Inverse folding.
């Protein structure tokens, strides 16, 4: 079976169908503003250590300045040996990683092998470049395969970088400061986890778009340890008074009950196979 | 280079032509975040604000309270553009001194509110980007809250929230202090302790969901004994 059948060959050239549609939409909405998609406003970080790769992410999703989700999952499953952190537009990172994961699952079923990280990177790069930046996904891909431990970043326009340590998202500069200071080649597992945790924590404290808890994902040749949450936020929302409303506080003004009359139209019996 | 900007309304490629020199305007305003709240009781007034000063996605300071003590019976809370907040409070302080020297008495809360309205309107065509709320005691010793818009329109209220999380706080205050949207509930008058607890809870909630609110909460409680200040930590992330 030729592998080229497994993955859909994409249409040649650039694809701007949605961009043209969006431009046409601009006139229809009031004020000429199309609805703004939810952005994650994130801190994600990754580090290659002696036995594998550690990925970390915060858990806050913001919709401009309001926190939309306090416990959103930014580390996505791609395959048993590859995980991906996503920053940027939430829908784009979700769908892109889902698409990638499906494609790679079909590939592994056909070939009987775990996919290599470089395959995942190439598929992502192809797809994002074809949409020329319209898909706002900043991704950090980390995984372990037969050729070693790899950490890649893929940008929204399709740029790829292979690096030993990395941070992305609105809190990337804060996290990168910690990573630049503490990174060494061939770290031990606990040191690597602590470094990633410190980097994401720095993003959480200094960037308004990141916050709440920290998720960590450790990928080694033995398997994957997805720790969610690795560290719960130390800020608990404790309130002084109990806000309870007695029954009847919201008044019922009118009540109208309409019974639904049902009549039997068709009756079929299907025998169940019981042993 | 092809990009979505090259597509016009009908979806066809826009004609590329030289549109003239593009102008990048310098914006004289910045938004520094922050939330302010004031509640008036029978014989007390509370003005509370968070202490975070931010710009964009960064934090300038975790300890920059937005409550300014004007007199022994009046506190002003202002949020918005920090540069204008500082200038406005300097101007108000100067005017308070001038009044004291001319009239040999301290300005009352109502008088300060009226004066602030004229100061703000004098800059009608280049406004102070500040959301003001005054909390204090009036001549009878009752709690008073005056809320303003950036160009000086004001009214006396029982409670008001202003700043970045105001849309989240105001409905909650309407329900808990104004007893709106509730039936069969006894309208107990607000005590000072209950009001302080409510203000703390309401800011804890605002810090959960608004990225610009957090770090710490400064509460100024104005009574006839004087102004008492409390500092409560909020989430820092």
């Amino acid at each position: 079976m030729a592998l080229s059948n497994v993955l859909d060959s994409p249409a040649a050239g650039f694809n701007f169908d949605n961009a043209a549609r969006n431009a046409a939409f601009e006139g229809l909405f009031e004020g000429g503003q199309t609805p703004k998609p939810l952005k994650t406003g994130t801190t994600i970080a990754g580090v290659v250590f002696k036995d594998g790769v550690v990925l970390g992410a915060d858990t806050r999703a913001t919709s401009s300045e309001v926190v939309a989700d306090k416990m959103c999952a930014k580390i996505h499953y791609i395959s048993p040996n590859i995980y991906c952190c996503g920053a940027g537009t939430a829908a784009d990172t979700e769908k892109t990683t889902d698409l990638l994961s499906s494609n790679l699952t079909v590939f592994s079923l056909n070939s009987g092998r775990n996919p290599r990280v470089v395959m995942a990177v190439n598929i992502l790069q192809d797809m994002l470049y074809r949409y020329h930046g319209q898909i706002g996904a900043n991704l950090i891909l980390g995984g372990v395969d037969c050729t070693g431990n790899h950490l890649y970043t893929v940008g929204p326009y399709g740029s790829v970088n292979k690096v030993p340590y990395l941070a992305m998202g609105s809190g990337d500069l804060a996290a990168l400061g910690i990573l630049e200071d503490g990174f060494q080649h061939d770290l031990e597992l606990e040191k690597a986890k602590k470094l990633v945790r410190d980097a994401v924590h720095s993003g959480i404290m200094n960037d308004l778009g990141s916050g709440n808890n920290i998720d960590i994902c450790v990928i080694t040749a033995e398997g994957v340890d997805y720790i969610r949450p690795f560290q719960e936020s130390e800020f608990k929302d404790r309130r002084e008074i109990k806000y309870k409303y007695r029954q009847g506080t919201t008044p019922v003004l009118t009540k109208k009950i309409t019974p639904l009359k049902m009549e039997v139209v068709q009756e079929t019996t299907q025998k169940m196979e019981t042993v | 280079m092809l990009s979505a900007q090259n597509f016009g309304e009908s979806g066809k490629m826009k004609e590329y032509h030289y549109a003239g020199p593009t102008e990048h305007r310098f914006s004289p305003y910045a938004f520094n975040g922050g939330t302010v709240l004031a509640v008036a009781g029978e014989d007390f007034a509370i003005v509370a604000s968070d202490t975070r000063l931010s710009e964009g996605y960064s934090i300038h300071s975790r300890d920059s309270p937005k409550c300014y003590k004007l007199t022994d019976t009046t506190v002003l809370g202002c949020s918005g553009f920090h540069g204008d907040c500082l200038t406005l409070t300097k101007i108000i302080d100067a005017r308070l001194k001038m009044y004291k020297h001319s009239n040999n008495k301290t300005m009352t809360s109502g008088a300060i509110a009226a004066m602030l309205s004229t100061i703000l309107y004098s800059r009608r065509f280049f406004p102070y980007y500040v959301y003001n709320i005054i909390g204090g005691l009036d001549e009878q010793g009752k709690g008073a809250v005056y809320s303003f818009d950036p160009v000086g329109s004001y009214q006396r209220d029982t409670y008001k929230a202003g700043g970045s999380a105001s849309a989240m706080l105001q409905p909650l205050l309407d329900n808990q202090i104004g007893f709106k949207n509730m039936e069969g509930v006894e309208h107990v008058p607000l005590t000072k302790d209950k009001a302080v607890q409510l203000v703390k809870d309401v800011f804890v909630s605002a810090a959960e969901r608004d990225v610009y609110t957090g770090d710490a909460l400064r509460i100024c409680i104005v009574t006839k004994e004087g102004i008492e200040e409390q500092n409560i930590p909020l989430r820092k992330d």
